[in-house]
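Worked example (supplementary).
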Amino acid sequence: MTALARSLVPTLRTVGLAAGLPVLLVLGWGLATQGSQSFYFPGPATVARTFVDTWFGPAFVQDVLPSLGRFGAGVALSIVIGIVAGTAIGTTPWLRELLEPMLEFFRAVPPVALVPVLMLLLGIGDSMKLAVIVSGCVWPVLLNTVEGVRGVDPVLTETSRSYRVHGALALRYVILPAASPRIMAGIRLCLSIGLILMVISEMFAASSGLGYRLVYFQRSFMIAEMWSGIVLLGLIGVVVATIFGFVDRRVLHWYHGLREVARG
Amino acid sequence: MADARTLLRVTDLGKTYATAGRTVEAIRSISFDVAVGELVCIVGPSGCGKTTLLKCLSGLLAPSAGSVSLDGQPVTDPPEKMAVVFQEYGRSLYPWLTVEDNVALPLKARKVPRAERDELVRAALEEVGLAHATTTYPWQLSGGMQQRVAIARAIAYRPEVLVMDEPFAAVDAQTRADLEDLVRRVWRDLGVTVLFVTHDIDESVYLGERVLVLSSSPTVVQEDLRVDLPDDRDQISTRALPRFTELRTHVHEQIQRAKRDEHSEAVEPHAPAAHT
Amino acid sequence: MSWTTSRGRVLGLLGILGFLATWEVAARSGLVNQTYLPAATTTLARLGRELGTPQFWAALGDTLITWSVGLAIAFLAAVALGAVVGLVPFLERATHSTVEFLRPIPSVAIIPLAVLIAGLSREAALMVVVYAPFWQVFVQVLHGVADVDPVARDTARSYRLGRYERLRHLVLPTALPYVITGLRLAASVALILTITAELVIGNPGLGRQIEVYRAAPDAAGLYALVLVTGGLGVLVNLATRMLERRLLFWHPSVRKEKAL
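After joint prediction of all chains, the assembly is encoded as:
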């Protein structure tokens, strides 16, 4: 019995530390909004009820799924383009020197500033939204891949050369794994930029999607609905970050292990 | 052994680095032959261009003058018959591959069939005493164990020449003694030719059948010494032999002489072009 | 950077010229309609004229004010809160889950809320501009405070260094590189969000001007301003990197940084 209690205490402490502040914050939010009938700040219960009513219905199919689809497609395309182009640029010195100033410039352009440009060029359809996401998301992956590919330890490169590990085999087993910590850092940025651009591209001239709904609720003064949209976006952000963390631990388990050993 | 076939021939090898208008002559002229099945140690004062020499031998670096040939073929690229074990074991093993995948990758590049590959990997890991660690990652092992993995990778490659660049410089003394005996055993068991670069005089005498003493930079071969110690060597009894002490004292004196020559030359440090 | 070698400079210049030439040809040949993609020369000429107008400089000034105010608020708040939370282990553990929840929320999600509360104003834009850079710096500060070498910490304890001395000589030098890196990342994110806010909310600045030119439609003006925003971003990157190198030339982490 005491052994059970002893093993329970640390678990309870962990749960308490993780859940304590969020619970306090929600309680505080509830208390603050209970007395006053603040127009802009509905209570947590209202937002929760509206959340279920708004998003667990046809809106899920009409708005949430298309948004997630565009986000997924845009991010996937960015990752593929970024890794392929980044590997080519990183392994070809003259190409890198040729493109470096242009890359520095393009990554510095605020991705949202390209929305009007792409609207002019591509209209306001899905291809525009996809292009917006890719035009902003591709840079962190591409630049990090270039750096990662260039940064392969020279001893490893010489080892591979002396054992005649060339071409596709070297790419698959040496260059890409060596660059993978940098590539994953790029993908992490790519995901958060992608989410922002998904919302922004839908705020401009769209008839469906989360960004469209959010602006619609705001303009119609549907405050609780608007709050539920913000909460939904937050949840999507958290879920995406959690999935990324899981994939990161799988892909880079050797890297995290190595760092832990190095730290002692 | 003296009349055996020459496997590796180094002829008037020179290497000069040119950087931004300044030239540094790392190796002036080195010539030596290694016969099939020999175990040759190369020893020299620190900074004498041992690593440069080794990179030229293994085809990783193009020499500025002279040539290297392996089995009559000029070496311009890393040759298939040669395996290299680097000093920095922590950086020459692929941290994202398990021990067995590290050993197997060069064989994959050589397109060795799967079944044969597995057998070579297994045998090599057993030879170095790591049969139990096949699925761990290199960074989970101690330094000495990691260097064993690198040696296993070289053995599995079935090279005719095994080149080792100060492989034990970064491991502790006890591990080092074990690894030295491992190198002797591998050399005898597999009949491979070994070229072992070190800065440790005792190690060169204990391991080698022959010791090449290099001068300070710009480097030449200062002495080519035959080690006439019994074939069966043992960390305690061999090192206690009077002949061992004589040989190591001799090599030691040679290296001291090389260092003195360097100092007398240091009067004119920035005029390497005058020597050529 | 390859701009340090003359070969790199020549090739880099060739790359820029090649890009402009491709653009010019694509527009002039009719591959893309010039209404949507004006030629490079047209755009650059327009950019020159734009630089001569007072309303361009007013817009640039507005953007820079929103950017610098937003960055300053985010940076100061993050350093103060980050230091407190980082130095008190209980607070660190108690806030961890909340921070991990709030951090990935896309900053643009609060645009509708900001507009409702503050209208189409700079204050609304600032709410958006402050949010993401705040977390960037905050997390860096936590990493920095946590990175204090345990041996150095024990040494300081054994010599009975006071709280203030420990902060001054142990925590501050360790955390500084992280804080500066956080500032560099935050500066470019804040600029991106400033222009985003101006575009979406419509408070004065380069972003709003871009939207005005799009609606006109005035393609040459639009492209000229997009070039300006890119140039501004490059300048901010260069300036913060220089600051970092000046302040941290002694620290190995300057070499290990990640590219954004």
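Two points are worth noting when inspecting this output. Chain C touches chain A through 68 residues (CB under 8 Å). Chain C has eleven helices and no strands.
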